[in-house]
Design brief:
2 domains, 12 strands, three-stranded mixed sheet, Arc Repressor Mutant, subunit A, five-stranded mixed sheet, globular, Dna Topoisomerase Vi A Subunit, Chain: A, domain 2
């Protein structure tokens, strides 16, 4: 019976593909961008309120009511987890940071559904033989998605436990458990890499830039002069966190506001500034000099320090 199977996926592109793939079951979307903004250790309503406020601040939505409606709609999709008579819920979430954080959130919430009778299964990949630069399930044609359906795997109890532990650590105001988990999670194949990629967005010890900012700045320093060129280069070198158009523009806006890059008034061509080259060389610390005001999970980074930073070489967090 098709009403006993449900698919929960990472966005509208994947949902559209699944709807054309002629698979049994209902298709639902849960796709909050948890890689950005606050992740607070609070209940559903308060969690959505914080996320809605951020969505407006980030320019994703025009008002909190619209943001709340979207978030509530996604959470209502999770009713399939413990719906009476449901036999299987298939989670379609790939390898990257966006999807792995969503997967942790969904499995965290699923752990509270004591009446759940449905088996949880998963389709999660980091590459596809017919897609040279694989960025996500939304790239795949309906027949390619259909071919993945028989390869779905059961989600073990250990995987749920890892997701729950990771979610609790992600929402904590102190991030120091995350490097510990990064070295120990095993049941979810892409979770360790996603945790590391999350940590890499913390300011680095010398420039105060996160990895995405640093990579974009370096790309412009090598000659990329448009947003499209920067995104294309970053997608090629950083498949664990392929920035969307909105994310890419936000990164460039941050670099511009810090005067690390400039744009030509006539053609809009991007160029690195002398300060930007100093930052790349570790001779200008944007946190110490300009301050920071952002969330990384449950950690609020504010002021000119000390703040939590990620030392990629030593693979550890430092307070500086």
């Amino acid at each position: 019976m098709t009403d006993r199977i449900a698919h929960l996926c990472n966005g509208d592109s994947t949902a559209d593909g699944l709807s054309l793939a002629d698979l049994p079951g209902d298709i639902r979307v849960w796709a909050d961008a948890l890689d950005q903004g606050p992740l607070l250790p609070v209940g559903g309503e308060a969690f959505r309120a914080a996320r809605a406020r951020f969505a407006v601040t980030a320019g994703w939505e025009t008002n909190e009511a619209a943001a709340q409606a979207k978030l509530s709609g996604w959470d209502q999709s999770l009713a399939v987890l413990d719906a009476p008579g449901m036999e299987e819920v298939v989670l379609w979430y790939e390898h990257d940071l966006f999807d792995q954080l969503a997967l942790c959130r969904v499995l965290f919430l699923a752990s509270f559904t004591e009446a759940r009778s449905a088996q949880l299964t998963m389709v999660s990949i980091d590459r596809h033989p017919e897609v040279p630069l694989f960025l996500g399930l939304g790239q795949l044609a309906p027949e390619q998605l259909a071919a993945l359906w028989p390869r779905r795997t059961p989600i073990a109890k250990e995987a749920v436990e890892e997701a729950v532990a990771t979610w609790i650590a992600l929402t904590a105001a102190d991030p120091r458990v995350l490097p510990y988990l990064m070295k120990r999670v095993r049941a979810l194949p892409f979770l360790a890499g996603a945790i590391e990629r999350h940590l890499e967005e913390f300011p680095d010890p010398s420039s105060g830039l996160g990895r995405s900012e640093r990579q974009a700045l370096a790309s412009i320093g090598r000659g990329a002069s448009t947003h499209a060129e920067v995104r294309q280069e970053l997608h090629a070198i950083d498949p664990r966190y392929p920035l969307t158009d909105v994310q890419g523009r936000a990164v460039l806006e941050t670099l511009t506001s810090h005067e690390l890059i400039s744009a030509s008034p006539a053609g809009g061509a991007l160029a690195i500034t002398a300060r930007g080259r100093q930052a790349l060389a570790g001779a200008f610390d944007v946190v110490a000099e300009l301050g920071v005001d952002r969330w990384r999970g449950g950690v609020q980074l504010s002021g000119r320090g000390p703040v939590w930073r990620w030392d990629g070489a030593a693979r550890k967090l430092v307070l500086r």
